[in-house]
Design a protein that fits this description.
By secondary structure, this protein is an alpha+beta fold. It has one domain. It is built from six helices and five strands. A five-stranded mixed β-sheet has the order 1-2-3-4-5, with helices on both faces. β1, α2 and β2 form a beta-alpha-beta unit. The longest helix has 13 residues. The relative contact order is 0.16.
């Protein structure tokens, strides 16, 4: 990947979209015990990059982190999802520990990173598209939804088989060569 690549241009198009703060109608439950206010990050427009051919998922994550370390991207300007139809998906959240996935992993891992990438490696295109829809239909809506998307329920019943890796983005954003070896 280089600064002349389509992926690089896509990253910077996403950066300009992430600057936009959309109007949101949200029911804040901060008065209840254990409920924190929703981070302003979720007022930003969710973003996805699609690719029919791509490099390895880890190399893509490394390229993004390199751009963050160099100050070219902020950690809140990274795409929420990168769909690589030949390799799988990359999910990113600067508030991973508070996402549904992060909360589900709390009992399984000694610690959950605040900022994280999750890679789902597979070359099975239908399975990749199912995972994309699962994420897409769970992006934060700017308005209070009275009902859920009917297809979400059915997508959870479809078995998927990915090689899943959780990558601590906080460690990757630091200029530390030993992390990469």
């Amino acid at each position: 990947m280089t600064e002349k690549s389509e992926f690089h241009r896509g990253l910077y198009q996403i950066k300009s979209v992430k600057i936009i703060i959309r109007d949101v109608d949200r029911l804040e439950l901060t008065g209840f015990p254990g409920k924190e206010s929703t981070p302003k990050y979720y007022d930003k427009i969710p973003s996805v990059i699609f690719s029919s051919k791509s490099t390895e998922l880890r190399k893509t994550v490394d390229y993004i982190c390199e751009n963050v370390r160099e100050g070219k991207l902020d950690y809140e300007e990274i795409p929420d999802l990168i769909v690589c139809l030949d390799k799988g998906l990359i999910f990113y959240s600067p508030f991973f520990s508070s996402t549904g996935i992060g909360q589900n992993l709390e009992s399984k891992l000694p610690s959950i990173p605040q900022n994280a990438f999750v890679t789902y490696a597979s070359s099975d295109k239908p399975m990749i598209l199912i995972m994309f829809l699962r994420y897409f239909l769970n992006f934060t809506s700017p308005h209070l939804l009275l009902t859920d998307f009917v297809v979400k329920k059915y997508l959870t019943y479809i078995e998927t088989n990915f090689v899943v890796k959780l990558l601590d983005a906080d460690k990757m954003f630091i200029k530390n060569k030993s992390y990469y070896s």
